[in-house]
């Protein structure tokens, strides 16, 4: 198959909400789309729009040079890859399933053993963001393959290439998710305290938004200091952070809300204070989180 042809046809394996949105975006863009899903019956609407359903995962891989995988995790990826091994030679697997950087590297190694290559992807938007060029996906893997298939990948979202290491796209994705999950759980905890005191989530919203909007300013101030190893306590002190988090914990508990979440935060800070860093900035925790 020529490069031109491969640019206009694609296989999508995995028809969860994300894979369905991806296959739909390719159909919208005029691609010939072959799909396969472990559980039959998920391709219905896509078939009506012109997609072709392969009878097996192997047949789906055989159909195109570019194969998009949108599976729950890499356990699912490895299960599918095992079934399609004989068809992998020469294939480019855009693996847009989430997991750890280590597992992304392992998958790339296994694919290379079978003559295939992986472009790892970390999609940063929900299915509703697929097909929108303003959305973004982290990619990593062989740069020449990324360049060759960039147009096809950009049918799904904008493409942010992070480097050759197949683990990098997942690494960038997971560090974003670290912030996302702690922010979301923190948001829900704060809302629980608000509701326990008769303040609705909607009443709380403008104040929440204002605090969230202040975060980029803090991050822009601290990032160069963290990079430079400068943790001087001129604008904030770890001991102050400990007292502040304890106030949150007590407010939660006084409101009948579980204080376990702020207690975990306080514990991380307290260890730093007990080790003699009470007069340093909160940013000193960056180095102390590392286990080496
Ligand atoms: P789902 O878990 O809903 O669906 C994923 C697909 O994986 C399904 O088609 C499922 O098949 C298939 N699958 C699971 N296990 C196996 C297996 N052992 N063998 C073969 N197929 C298997 O995930 P989503 O569609 O929501 O997401 C896909 C990926 O995209 C995930 O890695 C997710 O983390 C990532 N992502 C999702 C976002 C979202 O908002 N949904 C946002 C950003 C990233 P079956 O139908 O047979 O169960």
Model description:
The chain has 292 residues and is α/β, with parallel strands linked by helices. The protein has two domains: 3-166, Rossmann fold (3-Layer(aba) Sandwich); 197-289, N-(1-d-carboxylethyl)-l-norvaline Dehydrogenase, domain 2, CATH 1.10.1040.10. Helices cover 55% and strands 15% of the residues. It has helices at 3-7, 17-28, 44-48, 57-63, 74-84, 101-113, 143-153, 168-196, 201-227, 238-254, 260-277, 285-289, and strands at 9-13, 32-36, 52-53, 66-69, 92-95, 117-123, 132-140, 157-163. Strands 3-2-1-4-5-6-7-8 form an eight-stranded mixed sheet, with helices on both faces. Helix 5 packs parallel to helix 6 and helix 10 (238-254) runs antiparallel to helix 11 (260-277). It is elongated, with a radius of gyration of 23 Å. 34% of the residues are buried. The model is unreliable at 1-7 (pLDDT under 50). It binds NADPH dihydro-nicotinamide-adenine-dinucleotide phosphate. NADPH dihydro-nicotinamide-adenine-dinucleotide phosphate binds next to helix 2 and helix 5.
